[in-house]
Amino acid sequence: MELFLIIVYGLFLAFIFSYSLIQLQLALAYRKVKNRKAKEVALPEDFSDWPVVTVQLPVFNELYVVERLIESVSQLDYPKDKLEIQVLDDSTDESFELAAKKVEEVKACGIDIKHIKRPDRVGFKAGALAYGLEICRGEFTAIFDADFVPTNDFLKKTIPAFANEKVGLVQTRWEHLNKDFSWLTKMQAFGLDAHFTVEQSGRNSSGHFINFNGTAGVWRKTCIEQAGGWQSDTLTEDLDLSYRAQLNGWKFVYKQEVGSPAELPAEMNALKNQQFRWTKGAAECAVKNLPKVLRGKNIDAGTKIHAIFHLLNSGVFICILCSALLSIPMLFIKSSNVQYSLLFNLASIFLISFFILSYFYWVSMEKGGRGWWSDFKRFAIHFPMFLSISMGMSLHNTVAVIEGYIGKKTPFIRTPKFAIGKTGGNWSTNKYRSLKVSPLAFVEGLLTVYFVFGIVLAFKLGDYGMLPFHLMLTLGFGYVFFYSVKHSRV
Questions:
Q1: Mean pLDDT value of segment 364-371
Q2: In what order do the strands lie in the sheet with 53-59?
Q3: Which homologous superfamily does the CATH classification assign to the domain defined by 52-306?
């Protein structure tokens, strides 16, 4: 039995190690392009006449941010006769009337804006986008979620990339309106910045598949249609369409130099809703699209390997949780079974994963402008904290991933927006907040105690190899548990 547990433990560590190697390759690829100045794409003569663009705004009960969204999009610097705005509004509360009033104000300024309500909310966001696509007049569609505030030059910085007729999507980098609001928003920004620098740039510069992030991007309408359109059989319709389009031969462009400001969830349970949807949807997309990737005859080996780990990356939460749970039994097995000492010594090689991930996030955070020492001090605080909270979210996300793999269907649950920006704000009075404490939160509390036991056990057995790991797990699960309860009651 002890040997079986060691092997299972080793398999989980092996997946994490393999995942970290892929992240290392992306970090190295990103470093090659990091300091290159973005090339301005000149419009050819037959593209000098700006094409018609439809901006789609899928919203549902966005009382606090819908006016801000419509106002910011109405300020886009683009020929009025070539711009159409669709407010795809499935709202069931007073935000619908608020949006309608704002739409009329913008329409009075001579902008082609339509307030569209479907007969029913079939397919949630994917359904709304599909409905709007059927009646839009644009050759290209830009999409913004309700919490975004695009800059007025967004279209003029993205549309030129479509001069290449093989380009089906242009994705831009997310920026953060409320990054410094709290430690929770700081840690989200830390993780998202790594995705929107190292991962997206690394994959795109290497010619691998990237994903549309659901917002702050522009699609060629023909690309969407040829890839099978928006489909709502997964919770991440953006990732699903991205893979179907790229498997169909379309090229994607990632423009890191174009920032799109947005609001981060400032409340723990809102973040959990978002994480659940993202991780479960990614698992559903893996089930749906991974076989197509494996069968793809026109995909080179490198792109295929990266696509496999890209689609399976939410599965890393299962490995984190299971290796964490097994780490304490491993301490007992190690102390009482000297015959396995060689296996445990070999397993220590997987500690390299920690240093690889450190490098990955260091590359994403390193700016160079403030000086190396200033960057390092900030990194030394942010990285362990980010890793701890990620570990603390592993139970919640593991449930989501397993549901995605086994095909359990759940409705699309939107992330509440709080209208918190650079000047602050108050989320506690938001009417969309969940005031129920999930039973999983109490399990997270029990896991906090479990890993405290691991810390005590390290001193009792005199084996301190797992001590940093158990300290971070205790901090992570404790943080997630505490704020899950606190934010449900404020």
A1: 70
A2: 112-116, 83-89, 53-59, 140-143, 217-220, 167-176, 251-262
A3: Spore Coat Polysaccharide Biosynthesis Protein SpsA; Chain A (3.90.550.10)
